Amino acid sequence: MNALIVEDEKGLALEIDEFLSHEGFTIEHARTKKSAEEKIFVNNYDFILLDLSLPDGDGFDLLKMLKGIKDRDDAVIILTARGAVDDRVHGLEQGADDYLAKPFSLNELLARIHAITRRKHKLESNDIAIKEFRINIQNRTVHYKVDRVNLTKKEFEIFNYLVLNKNRVISRTNLTEHVWGDVLEINSDSNFVDVHVKNLRKKLSYFEPIDWFETVRSIGYRVNI
Description:
- The chain is of the alpha/beta class and 225 residues long.
- The chain is 40% helix and 23% strand.
- The protein has 2 domains: 2-120, Rossmann fold (3-Layer(aba) Sandwich), CATH 3.40.50.2300; 127-223, Arc Repressor Mutant, subunit A (Orthogonal Bundle).
- The strands form 4 sheets. Strands 2-1-3-6-7 form a 5-stranded parallel sheet, sandwiched between helices. It has a 4-stranded antiparallel sheet with strand order 8-9-10-11, covered by helices on one side.
């Protein structure tokens, strides 16, 4: 998954970055409202971690702008020292998915991210079953029956993203954006996505046929469940 940290406190932003990167996230930073707007117009994010008190504006205005963009489903968690009930209510009413007052535990932040992921994709637990395969989105593991499937971080992210968006065609560009981050920094002529998918398929098909893992010609991929 990819996340945008909108936070002008450099130390806190780096602390969150290090923690979530260790959990497999691809992270981008914005220290101002203007910078965040520029990144949001270019990229989609699984999560936006939003501070309200930015040097050049209010985070609520950024949230309102984001929610006004058609077909955006970035999950937003407000992270701020403004912990008053009125601010929390206003943030949630404006479309934020959750609200954490500073200081907060990074483990709690991760738990809330997992909870939002479950709600967003209508999951009853952190486990997702595909035939005899089982993905755990919290532990970032894949098993076939009792055997562990040894995937790289990127292979897991690809598989996880396709499964979370099951029965939908996911374009190569969209997959690249959510697994690798800023699409502007990536050579559109590169076939590295296809190479990673090929390796993932090889590892999965070792256990059983995976006819449900479909290539949609000239577009991308789809997991049919």
